[in-house]
Every structure is written in structure tokens, then in C-alpha cells.
Recover the amino acids of this structure.
């Protein structure tokens, strides 16, 4: 649904060059929620703004819903009619909502329809319908200043949906909200994704957001995508940095002669209570040092750090048992960073 | 005495009204262009931006009394006469347009760039950005700026006497100051204070109503600073423009 190839953005100011994007290949499938994470300055924001060409990429192409936007836009610095028309079918929500304080909630939602040239009656009908969809049917005549942050973002989402988009871009849409409001906004995005089949590309610095609603994710660093794939693919990748960030585990061994093992559940086999089975089968005591687990659609997903008594040599058989169950097992003090090439290829398809 | 005051009052209102109207007509497009042609803006054009900037600065750096005399031939060309209120209006407009254009520029620049971006992300073009985002969002500041401009024009118009423009300021100088009719001078001063007060209150009220609706706090800073310099003595009047520059 959204594909970028070799997307590069270089800013030039006073003879200095700053590379914000360095050959980004991204592929977002139709109907999925795709999260791009990374620290400030990693290029996420530039990336999402390049998708609807608010920012013109220096090179590379952007294709949204089968339309090559970079070709459509031509060479000129200003948006031509073809690009503007394409943009009106790509919704965008912002971190700071960007609602017009001079207009009522309803008039804010009507703005994209005014741009599309929809008649007054039809605009009103559509705006009220969208307000109902985001659960703010009673706020049509209110001004944005009278709303809470979460309500403002709901208006922002309703406005983004006015052009009946197939794609929604979310630029840190929950970063200015408190945790509870964040959850309710994410729930709304999830519902829209499922009810309307909306494809959502979101950027965020909150791992929680990815964990909550994303089907796929990519990690950006220094203008490049260093890891990408579906959430279970990422978890299945040995040494994946994104997996460690998504499901961070910590904990020190409680004494010498202990083996610390990181076990990754990526939703394939882990429907049985493996830890207690392990304990019973080999008659060993297991301590859980740290865990970050979630149950998604009945499957356990996440990571756990456990401690087995004795050195590594004595625990070869129990570790083998865990691997047989289809779990990813890494012995914590022997770190072998594994290449993420296989995943990158997967993401580029 | 009565008709003298009445005519002066009407002359002043005539000059201030028409110069304000033209200040809006000229100042809004110029102020918008100053913002929109700036580097990185929608209609980026460094040359146009620089040229407009120079013209605006030029218009603002000339003392009004000089402008008034200097523009006599131009006034004759435009309104067919070089004396009277109509001729004074020409000079007032030339003085007020750059003044208001700078205030418009400041007001429009204050509009959050994210709003422009949001409109663009919906497929809006330059027209949409100007008429649906920038101007409506800047409206309270624009009205505050217009209030400032009208009051400054009232001060400028005191100098219209130099080209026989008449008006209250002129009356105060010729009768009050030169002929030592202190009573008459005081009456004109009271009248001018009344006009300034009405304009300022009306402006404040409009700004406050718009701001209350959109949830913004009190009127823009600096609005009230223009009270004092608006007293119509020629020297004070030229200085009236000074504190306004920072608004």
C-alpha cells in the first residue's frame, strides 16, 4: 500500500549538508498497522512527511495506493493539482493536533471537504457522521480550546478521515497524551483499521504503541531502517535490537555457577506452560529474573530471562528442551550478535 | 466656533476613515507577501521578498511631515489636487500601508506552521492556506494591528494642516497654539481622546470576543502602549509610530 524505495533526504543550509534519510526502503502492506520507531533525530518524522511529500525527498520514490507520488509531483517546488488531489486521499494526524482554533469542531472536519469542493449539506452530513464514528457526536459546535487532548486528537482523526482515505499517516499522534488517553486513541486507530480496512503508518518513540497496535515495525537509526518485519518475525530474529527494545528484560544472576538464559516467545509454539514443564521434567529450580510478556490473540509473545542452577555445561539438556518447544533461546552472558539481513530483505519486498 | 469644530472633526474622520480603508487594502496583501515569499515559505521568492522589505522600510523610515510635503506632486496626480483632506489621504495611505503591512506580517507569522502543513496534507493549495488558515487564524492579531494603525493615523492626520488638510490636529495648532486660544485647544484634545478611546475599546472588544471563542488568553501584548503617544502634537505623533514597531 505504501512503498518507498531508496528514499533519501538531504538538507542543505549554509554549505553544510545533513542527511536525514539515507536510502530508506519501506513496504507497508494493505490493511496493516505499521510502526516506525527510533530516537529523536533518527529521521522518522522526515520519513512520514516524505510519504505525502510535505517534504520533497532528494531522491528515491514514494508509491501510495499504486500511485507514484514522486512522479506525480514533478520537479516544481509547489504542490501541483495532481499531488494535491492524491494528498486529499491520504489522511494525516499530528502530534499537536493542528486544529484551527478559529473554527468549531464540525467546521474543522469540514475543511478537507471544502478543499474537495463538497457542497454544504453534504459536508455537514459527513462531518457529523465522522464525529459519531470517533465518539464526539455532542461536540460538533464546540471550539477546539474547549476539548481535552484526547478529544482534540479524535477530532484530528475524524478530519483525517473526511477524504475517505485508504491510508492514514500518524505523526507521533499519541506523544502529547497521557497513558490512558494514549490507550483509548490507539484503540480507536485499531478499530478504524479493522472496520474500514484502513492502512496505518505511524511513527512514534514509544515502544508501547508498537506493542499495542502494530502488525509490523521498523527501527530507524541515523536515517536508515536497521530492522523491519512483522512483530513475530522481529522477535524470532536472534539478537534483534528492536525485540530487545519492545520486550526489555533485565536481571542479574543471583550467584556464581548459575546459567542465565533469555527465552523469546514469538507466538509460534508457546501455548503450553513450558517453564513449569521444564522444571518438572528435569527436576530443577528455575528463577525468573525478568520478563516482558504479552498475550496477543491467545498466543504468548515476549521475552523472559530465567536462571538455571549450575554452569552452562550442566544445562545443555534443559536448554535443548526449550529449543525443542520452538522457543528462541539465548544464553545471556555469551552474546552473539546475529545479522538481521534476512529480515531486512523481508521488509523490502 | 461650533462649525469650526464640526468641520475639523469631519475632516479628521474623513482622513482617518479613508486612509484606514486603503491601509487594509494595501497592507494585508503586502504583509502576506512578506511572509509567503520568505525563504522556505509557500511562495518563496527572495527577490520579491527583499524588494517589498526595502519598500516597506523606506515608507516607515521617512518622517510623516516630510512624506506629506514630498508627496505633493504625487497627490496632485492621484486625486487632482495637492491641498485639502483628499490630498492628505494620499500621504496618510502611503505612510500607513507599510506600517500596517509590518503588523500584518507579524500577525501572520504567529500562525502555527503546523496548521499550514495540516491544510497542505489535506490537499489544500496556496489559496486554501491563505484564506482558510492564515487570515482566519490571524484575525484577532490583525484587528489589534488595525486598531493600532487607526490610532497612529489619527496622530499623523494632525500634520495634514501642512497641506491644508484641516482636521482637529490642525485646529489645535493654528487656533490653540498659534493664537493662544487654550480653551479651543483643550476641546480638540478632549475630542481626540474620545475618538482614540472609542477606537481602542472597539478594537479590544472585537479581539477579546474572537479570543474568548478560540480559547486564547488576553489581547496581544503591547496593544495598550499606544495610548500615550496618540495625543495629537506633531512631534509626539511621529513618535507614535515608534513603540508600535515592536508590537
Amino acid at each position: 500500500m505504501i512503498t518507498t524505495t531508496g528514499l533519501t533526504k538531504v538538507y542543505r543550509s549554509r554549505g553544510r549538508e545533513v542527511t536525514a534519510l539515507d536510502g530508506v526502503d519501506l513496504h507497508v502492506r494493505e490493511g496493516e498497522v505499521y510502526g516506525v520507531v527510533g530516537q529523536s533525530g533518527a529521521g522518522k518524522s522526515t520519513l512520514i512527511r516524505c510519504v505525502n511529500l510535505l517534504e520533497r525527498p532528494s531522491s528515491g520514490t514514494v508509491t501510495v495506493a499504486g500511485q507514484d507520488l514522486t512522479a506525480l509531483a514533478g520537479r516544481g517546488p509547489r504542490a501541483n493539482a495532481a499531488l494535491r488531489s492524491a494528498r486529499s486521499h491520504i489522511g494525516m494526524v499530528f502530534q499537536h493536533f493542528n486544529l484551527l482554533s478559529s473554527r468549531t469542531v464540525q467546521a474543522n472536519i469540514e475543511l478537507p471537504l471544502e478543499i474537495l469542493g463538497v457542497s454544504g449539506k453534504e459536508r455537514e452530513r459527513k462531518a457529523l457522521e465522522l464525529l459519531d464514528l470517533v465518539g464526539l457526536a455532542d461536540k460538533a459546535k464546540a471550539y477546539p480550546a474547549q476539548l481535552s487532548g484526547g478529544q482534540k486528537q479524535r477530532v484530528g482523526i475524524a478530519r483525517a478521515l473526511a477524504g475517505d482515505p485508504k491510508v492514514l499517516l500518524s505523526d507521533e499522534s499519541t506523544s502529547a497524551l497521557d497513558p490512558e488517553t494514549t490507550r483509548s486513541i490507539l484503540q480507536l486507530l485499531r478499530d478504524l483499521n479493522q472496520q474500514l480496512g484502513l492502512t496505518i503508518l505511524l511513527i512514534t518513540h514509544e515502544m508501547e504503541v508498537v506493542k499495542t497496535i502494530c502488525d509490523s515495525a521498523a527501527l530507524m537509526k541515523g536515517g536508515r531502517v536497521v530492522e523491519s518485519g512483522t512483530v513475530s518475525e522481529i522477535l524470532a530474529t536472534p539478537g534483534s535490537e528492536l525485540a530487545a527494545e519492545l520486550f526489555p528484560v533485565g536481571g542479574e544472576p543471583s550467584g556464581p555457577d548459575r546459567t542465565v538464559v533469555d527465552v523469546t516467545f514469538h507466538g509460534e509454539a508457546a501455548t503450553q506452560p513450558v517453564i513449569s514443564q521444564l522444571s518438572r521434567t528435569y527436576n530443577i529450580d528455575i528463577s525468573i529474573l525478568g520478563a516482558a510478556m504479552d498475550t496477543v490473540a491467545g498466543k504468548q509473545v515476549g521475552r523472559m530471562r530465567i536462571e538455571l542452577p549450575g554452569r552452562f555445561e550442566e544445562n545443555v539438556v534443559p536448554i535443548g528442551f526449550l529449543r525443542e518447544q520452538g522457543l528462541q533461546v539465548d544464553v545471556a552472558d555469551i552474546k552473539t550478535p546475529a545479522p538481521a539481513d534476512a529480515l531486512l530483505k523481508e521488509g523490502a519486498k | 466656533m461650533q462649525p469650526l469644530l464640526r468641520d475639523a472633526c469631519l475632516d479628521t474622520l474623513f482622513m482617518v476613515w479613508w486612509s484606514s480603508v486603503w491601509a487594509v487594502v494595501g497592507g494585508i496583501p503586502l504583509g502576506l507577501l512578506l511572509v509567503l515569499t520568505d525563504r522556505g515559505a509557500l511562495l518563496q521568492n527572495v527577490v520579491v521578498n527583499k524588494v517589498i522589505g526595502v519598500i516597506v522600510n523606506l515608507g516607515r523610515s521617512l518622517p510623516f511631515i516630510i512624506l506629506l510635503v514630498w508627496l505633493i506632486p504625487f497627490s496632485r496626480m492621484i486625486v487632482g489636487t495637492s491641498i485639502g483632506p483628499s490630498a492628505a489621504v494620499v500621504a496618510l495611505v502611503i505612510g500607513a500601508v507599510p506600517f500596517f503591512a509590518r503588523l500584518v506580517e507579524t500577525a501572520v507569522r504567529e500562525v502555527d506552521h503546523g496548521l499550514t502543513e495540516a491544510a497542505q496534507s489535506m490537499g489544500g493549495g496556496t489559496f486554501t492556506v491563505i484564506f482558510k488558515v492564515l487570515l482566519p487564524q490571524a484575525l484577532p492579531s490583525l484587528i489589534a494591528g488595525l486598531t493600532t494603525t487607526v490610532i497612529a493615523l489619527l496622530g499623523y492626520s494632525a500634520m495634514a494642516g501642512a497641506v491644508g488638510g484641516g482636521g482637529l490636529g490642525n485646529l489645535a495648532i493654528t487656533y490653540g497654539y498659534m493664537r493662544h486660544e487654550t480653551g479651543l485647544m483643550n476641546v480638540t484634545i478632549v475630542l481626540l481622546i474620545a475618538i482614540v478611546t472609542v477606537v481602542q475599546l472597539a478594537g479590544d472588544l472585537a479581539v477579546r470576543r474572537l479570543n474568548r471563542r478560540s480559547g486564547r488568553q488576553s489581547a496581544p501584548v503591547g496593544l495598550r502602549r499606544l495610548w500615550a503617544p496618540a495625543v495629537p502634537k506633531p512631534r509626539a505623533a511621529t513618535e507614535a509610530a515608534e513603540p508600535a514597531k515592536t508590537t
Notes: Chain A has two domains: 2-236, 247-331.
